[in-house]
Fold this sequence. Notes:
The chain is an alpha/beta fold. The chain has a single domain (about 5-175), classed as Rossmann fold, CATH 3.40.50.450. It has helices spanning about 15-30, 45-55, 65-70, 85-95, 110-120, 140-150, 170-175, and strands spanning about 5, 35-40, 60-65, 80-85, 100-105, 130-135, 165. The longest helix is centred in the N-terminal third of the chain and has 16 residues, at about 15-30. The chain starts with a strand and ends in a 15-residue tail after the last helix.
Amino acid sequence: MKSLCVYCSSSDRLEPKYYEAATRVGAEIARRQWALVYGGGKSGLMGAVARGTKDGGGKVVGVIPEFMKVRELAFTEADELISVLTMRERKMLMETRADAFVALPGGWGTLEEILEIMTLAHLDVLRKPVVFFNQDGYYDDLLAMFDRIVRENFMRQTVRGKYAVARTVEEIFTLIDGWNHTVSDKQWFETR
């Protein structure tokens, strides 16, 4: 069974469109008979993607630090809920359990998690699909920063082949299915 690691917000103060898209991502994970690997939370987009997966009959694997579990933030309906002590342990376990990664809209935690995965991909330590879901241009500014990093020679053009950008839920899965880690400088899976 393939597993998709989803990084996303835990905020309950977002516009409804973000929860709807996260739910659709979860439903598509279930439809494909993949497993969801995620941060184990019940709120925000985390909860929406977990419920979308679970409601579709899919497998949900949550990895949650003990301090969050104590605060009753865990999605207790998960098929597997793994408790860890630190955020570092959480990230490592999610990384090893996943076949692909997607960042839905999120804050500091989401960015920190996906950028670590991108760093591992850049160093060729990790050769798995990495996708940004650029819903309604949410990641436009970050992607512009990536362009500047390349333009000013902090990184080579080949870094662009280490991640993909999807505008729709459907594109996330198309990009994962068509992933080719060995890309040249001229190839770039961006569809923004």
